[in-house]
Specification:
4-stranded antiparallel sheet; globular; disordered N terminus
């Protein structure tokens, strides 16, 4: 639950954030209200990336958070047609300028606080917040990672040579090597290198640099990675690589035409590993659908989601799996094995011609499923539309007269029980409705172990929602 550069999954935050940063610089510097004194960051001496040394790897069991149960939509089940890939626009897309955030219609919520620029904590670009396998909160850029310890961000690693790929259950930081032939783990004191002899195989870097997503842990402590070409898992001693053929998907496409991309989520309810694959060029050019692994075998080759672009996967608090196949939303109920589809409105909003693909999903506590749809014009797919689906009905959430971008679609509930939607702006959610709360542009959102919400506001301001203030 993650989109590549302007040509890969259309609007990956890693690329689009850079494109939009200059447009909202002034607004971003003042966005999180009148700031309280910034949280003091006291980083310990950081580890650079030396030539990796050898140390014995180990595995750990990862706890699975228990989400709050909410009711899910119960529409009438429809037959399970084979999904159709989304047409690929022929012309090169250029990003459409986004609106400058408008002044907030009401005072910003008092619980919002600006901590300070990410650059005061870590060097680098592409700042993201991640929850590690043990529940700890991490801040990552392309040049380092820091861990939240209480109220202080402590830098753990800077200057790695390669792509940071996550933190496992033992707290080790994984980095894919610069030539993609090895992956190394940093335990705070030494590096351990894993190459072909441990099952690792080279990763292909296509025409974008997001060739490995942030890793995730399953309930038995195995560390999983989704790359541009396959799915990989580390069991504490060796890596196992599941190719598209192993997944029953066939051959990945030629990167000269359509670049592949794998998405992954590990279900909190069962521990099953769900993956989706989508191909991208100047838009979507099909995909090889979704599969899931129950600990023993891969499933889904005969499901309604077996073919087509799957760019978004989400588990709701009731344990249902939601995914987009092309521009159509599907729900899978594991308890019954039933599939239900929800086609988007026939007409795309804001003068666009059609819905291109489901890019992101998030369930809220009030029986609403939030959907980011890529929307396409005659020559390009260059914007998003934000909807919620409830009882099978799609409702558009416009915040202006023009299309916008959703950089990280998330729902989070603070310690006071207030639910927030992070979309094109920040909304307050209630059972009665949805209210704009802050005209910010959140690029990454996560919750720490105390229940405090953290987010990054474009162009790089770290903020919190602390209901206990």
């Amino acid at each position: 639950m993650n989109i590549g550069d302007l040509g890969h999954q259309t609007f990956n935050v890693r690329r689009l954030t850079v494109v939009l940063a200059g447009m909202v610089l002034i607004a971003g510097l003042t966005a999180c209200s009148t700031p309280s004194p910034p949280t003091t960051s006291s980083p310990k001496p950081t580890a650079s990336a030396p030539a990796p040394a050898t140390a014995a790897p180990s595995s750990t069991t990862t706890p699975s958070p228990s989400p709050t149960t909410i009711p899910t939509a119960t529409p009438t089940a429809t037959p399970s047609p084979t999904a159709t890939a989304t047409p690929s626009p022929a012309a090169t897309r250029t990003p459409r300028p986004t609106r400058t955030p408008e002044p907030t219609p009401t005072p910003l919520p008092e619980s919002f606080r600006r901590v300070g620029p990410v650059a005061d904590i870590l060097p680098g670009d592409d700042a993201r917040l991640h929850t590690a396998c043990d529940g700890s909160l991490w801040l990552a850029t392309d040049q380092g990672v820091a861990r939240l310890d209480g109220d202080t961000w402590t830098v753990q690693l800077t200057g790695p040579t390669g792509k940071i790929a996550g933190v496992d259950g033992d707290g080790r930081i994984w980095v894919v090597g610069e030539d993609y032939t090895e992956i190394s783990a940093w335990d705070g004191d030494a590096w351990e290198v894993y190459g072909a002899e441990t099952g690792w195989s080279p990763v292909t870097d296509f025409w974008y640099d997001d060739y490995a997503d942030w890793g995730q842990c399953d309930p038995v402590g195995q560390f999983w990675l989704a790359t541009t070409q396959d799915i990989r898992v580390f069991d504490g001693e060796k890596w196992t690589v599941f190719t598209s053929q192993d997944l029953g998907m066939g051959q990945v496409p030629d990167p000269e035409g359509c670049a592949p991309s794998f998405q992954m989520t590990i279900l909190k309810s069962t521990g099953d590993v769900w993956i989706g694959e989508c191909n991208w060029a100047e838009g979507t050019c099909g995909g090889q659908g979704a599969r899931w692994f129950d600990g023993a075998a891969w499933h889904g080759a005969d499901s309604p989601a077996s073919q087509g672009c799957v760019a978004a996967l989400h588990e709701d608090p009731a344990g249902n799996v939601w995914l987009g196949v092309g521009n159509v939303l599907w729900q899978y109920a594991p308890t019954s094995g039933s599939w239900t589809s929800f086609a988007p409105p026939e007409e795309a909003p804001f003068g666009y011609r059609f819905h291109g693909a489901v890019l992101a999903l998030a369930a809220d506590p009030f029986d609403r499923l939030w959907v980011t749809e890529l929307i396409c014009g005659p020559a390009s797919c260059d914007a998003h539309a934000l909807y919620y689906v409830q009882d099978g009905v799609w409702t558009l959430m416009p915040t202006g007269e023009e299309a916008t971008y959703v950089l990280d679609l998330r729902v989070a509930t603070d310690t006071a029980g207030t639910s927030w939607l992070f979309g094109d702006i920040v909304y307050r959610l209630t059972e009665a409705g949805v209210t704009p709360a802050a005209y910010l542009m959140p690029t990454s959102v996560a919750v720490d172990t105390s229940g405090r919400i953290w987010f990054i506001d474009l162009p790089g301001m770290l903020c919190t929602i602390d209901a206990d203030r």
